[in-house]
Amino acid sequence: MCGIVGYVGNKQALDVVLEGLRRLEYRGYDSAGVALAVDGTLATAKRSGKLANLEKTLAETPLPASTTGLGHTRWATHGPPTDRNAHPHLDTAGRVGVVHNGIIENFAQLRSELEDSGVAFESDTDTEVVSHLLAAEFGSPGVGHDLAEAMRRVCRRLEGAFTLVAMHSDVPDAVVAARRNSPLVVGLGDGENFLASDVSAFIGHTREALEVGDGQVVEITRDGVTVTDFAGRECQPGRYHVDWDASAAEKGGFDHFMLKEIAEQPKAVADTLLGRIDEAGRLHLDEMRLSDDELRDVDKIIVIACGTAFHAGLVAKYAIEHWTRVPCEVELASEFRYRDPIVDRQTLVLAISQSGETMDTLMAVRHAREQGARVLAISNTNGATIPRESDAVLYTRAGPEVAVASTKAHLTQLVACYLVALYLGQLRGTKWGDEIRWVVRELAELPAKVEHVLQTVQPVRDLAASLRDKGSVLFIGRHVGYPVALEGALKLKELAYMHAEGFAAGELKHGPIALIEPGVPVVVIVPSPRGRDVLHDKVVSNIQEIRARGALTVVIAEEGDDAVKPYADHLVTLPECPTLLQPVLATVPLQVFAAEMARLRGFDVDQPRNLAKSVTVE
Ligand code: F6R
């Protein structure tokens, strides 16, 4: 939710920290702040609003030089997004500086204890209790000047989810961090070390990283990294090499990250297929760490995810049930554990999460595992908490996704779901080899077809210009076109702040058709006419029904689908593709439509209001 950075080294800490915050701003942009260790004190600056506000302040009033620092970019939970509530938060003497991502659930009780002992609070945040608690522990018997030990003692008193990064003016060459249910990685440099919410923050300096486990405290100095659990026992964190570089986290000539990420989709889809299908058209997903016997044993699949990832899950259900004949449910992760779901050892839970850190999904994963289910994560982030806590993982290979609205990660989630479904079909013998080979050939053609959609998408931008003043846009589809409709509506809501709703086309007549009045744009996703005729023909009938009531129809259909032409006020065509795979193509014009609409209406394409990319609170 929030982005945090810590640095100790030989460079100017402020430059390193600000560069990290720029890369992490997608996590929250309600305020930003930094603290530096300077001559036995802490120098701080913080401002509400985007990082640019802080940078302006720092340009007007520079901070002294320092090689130790920390920083924060905030997505507000406790207290409004003001200067006062911006992190870092200091103790009363201004010697401890703390930044935090997450929620400290028992902060009210801790705050009243501290207030009873005479501490005056400066902010409305839950974070500030940590600054005062650390100040009280630091220097106490058994702690002395050991900031990591002070942090361990404080963490044992905290409830909730948190990543904390802290400095003390008396220990100017160290930064300490702790994590519970919130992300934290260490970057290993030469004579310098880094702490951050994710590796993009320090990718310009090092590609070597350590995974910090849950319930651990890290201390970084110029030359070393020490990791312990909250009880003080030493831990051996896993080390990994990041296989992308700084240029992947830059805009690369595009005006917005989202546009760059939309353009990267052919490659992202191709990369996600790479090496997972052999020349004979057989799938190889050995990396998943689930044995063939375990997968044959599965008698139910439950997909859990949030937002756009949930829409990928809805598509997965069609593919899984069709190719494997195993019953599949799809559930919003935030609802899953609260309904007492029926889950056992023969249940395979598919947890889809780009970030691998979404708290709702993580909690659902834990619940499923507690009930005995096997969990297979589909994630875009190596070493994130959800893949680490799952029994198995299939990584999507979209590369870093910076824009808050998910695009390339979503397309690769779809592809990963197809791979899992086909693999199960292959393993369980529910699909003939030649049927699998046919789908595999179609999958292999997707990158070129997505590229074709991108090359021919200009009319969609023009369409956005003509619809920019509409009050509402509706989206309808059947079968896998229904999740595509939901995704199209979500993208338009979150980016262009327009009222948008997605419906199953067959449901229209059960109520929503009352919303149709002359001129209301309705985007219709039409399945392939070469697939199941009934499905296609039913959607064509739905277009006629809404058009008869005055809707302005925007029809997304396969090239050569003559049946839709008479009823389409605007026609967007897609290359031929089996209906089950069509979401990979049909989603792309909807992404472009939403991004263009946001641009035309003057909104921030990469950082829509009130949102954050990685939602690490429930
Ligand atoms: C919408 C969007 C969100 C995410 C959701 C889940 O464009 O990006 O709806 O899909 O917050 O995030 P992950 O996949 O990281 O779990």
Give structural notes:
This protein is an alpha/beta fold and 618 residues long. The chain has three domains: 3-239, 4-Layer Sandwich (Glutamine Phosphoribosylpyrophosphate, subunit 1, domain 1), CATH 3.60.20.10; 261-444, Glucose-6-phosphate isomerase like protein, domain 1 (Rossmann fold), CATH 3.40.50; 452-600, Glucose-6-phosphate isomerase like protein, domain 1 (Rossmann fold). It has 18 helices and 24 strands. Strands 3-2-4-1-10-9-11-14 form an eight-stranded antiparallel sheet, with helices on one face. A six-stranded antiparallel sheet has the order 5-6-7-8-12-13. Helix 3 packs across helix 4 and helix 9 (307-324) packs antiparallel against helix 16. The longest helix is centred in the last third of the chain and has 23 residues, at 433-455. The relative contact order is 0.09. The model has no long low-confidence stretch (mean pLDDT 95). Fructose -6-phosphate is lined by residues 306-309, 353-355, 358, 361, 405-406, 490, 494, 614-615.
Topology at a glance:
Layout: E1 3-8, H1 13-24, E2 31-38, E3 41-48, H2 51-60, E4 68-74, E5 89-90, E6 96-104, H3 107-116, H4 128-137, H5 147-157, E7 160-168, E8 175-180, E9 185-188, E10 193-196, E11 208-211, E12 216-220, E13 225-229, E14 239-241, H6 257-263, H7 265-273, H8 292-296, E15 300-305, H9 307-324, E16 328-332, H10 333-336, E17 347-353, H11 359-370, E18 374-379, H12 385-389, E19 392-395, H13 408-428, H14 433-455, H15 458-467, E20 472-477, H16 481-496, E21 499-504, E22 521-525, H17 533-548, E23 552-558, E24 570-574, H18 583-600
Parallel strand pairs: 15-16, 15-17, 17-18, 18-19, 20-21, 20-22, 22-23, 23-24
Antiparallel strand pairs: 1-4, 1-10, 2-3, 2-4, 5-6, 6-7, 7-8, 8-12, 9-10, 9-11, 11-14, 12-13
Helix pairs in contact: 3-4, 4-5, 7-13, 7-14, 9-13, 9-16, 13-14, 14-18, 15-18, 16-18
Residues 306-309, 353-355, 358, 361, 405-406, 490, 494, 614-615 line the site of fructose -6-phosphate.
